Amino acid sequence: MAGALPGQLQRQADELRGTFVGSSPAFRAMLANLCRVAANDAPVLIEGQTGSGKELAARAIHYGGTRRDGPFVPVNCGALPDHLLEAELFGHERGAFTDAKTARRGLVAEANGGTLFLDEVDSLSPKAQVALLRFLQDQHYRPLGGTRELHTNVRMIAATNRPLQDAPRFRADLLYRLKILYLELPSLKDRPGDAQELAQHFVGVFSAKYHLSPKRFDEKTVAWIDRYDWPGNVRELENWVHRELLMTEGSVIAAHPAAPQSKCGATGPQQMACFHQAKAEAVRLFEHDYVVTLLRRTGGNVTRAAQIAGKERRAFGKLLKKHGIDRELLAD
Hints:
With 332 residues, the protein is an alpha/beta fold. It has helices spanning 7-16, 25-38, 54-63, 82-90, 107-110, 126-138, 172-178, 194-209, 219-227, 233-247, 269-297, 302-309, 313-323; strands spanning 44-47, 72-76, 115-119, 140-141, 150-151, 155-160, 181-184, 216-217, 252-253.
């Protein structure tokens, strides 16, 4: 665990508690490390499971560092086709390819003086990795179809939901350039007590958003929140609180499952049972959200919702009954 922070970094850590919520030892150690990373200007690699808050951490590093007055430009590498990625990053001249009817600046130019955040960096193709490696050497680049070499000044932050050294096609030399500074985000199951704290925080956030009266969790739900593994981490917890808050009419949220899940740290049959429980819970959440979304879209019209879903009305009605959804409450 990280030791005591110097005065300036401690003040920064206190400020970040308005952005990050938690008090577990793993959370405090991560926050201390984040402050140290933000205080420097070298490239950063953030690793953490899906939903653990990697972009939030990247933004905290940017706005807590010397480039806070510059732009923060996020790029989802997994969402960009390989043939467009270089054009998106470095820009292109008119006529560089079929659809390039005008010249366009790239994202590295947009991020000049600030931070370029590459999310899902492990999804980059070998060709894109070579282009990025070349850029990281001296931050010089050439737009597609261009003849002049340009220069920019950005801080690079990359993120991945799996260790890059385990990615089969990721270049070791690129990993070394990205991982000068390193931040690992702990999963929510490794942050004992933080799930309860975060859940109550999200209740306050969404209550204010929808102008609702304050609500609280009953004791069984609080205990379940603490026992559940939260494989989707903070994002899953946030979405769960969002839904249960809106679906609860009274002032007490009692949303714990009939058979609460326990921590999945066992081996053998217990581990298999935990997997099946997690899968069943994921299916339940999907079905519930899907049905509610369709009914809201159709103003509570079950027949129309069933048509959109591609199901018979009777089968769709069974889903309503299964999840205890009152279509009248979702009608316009």
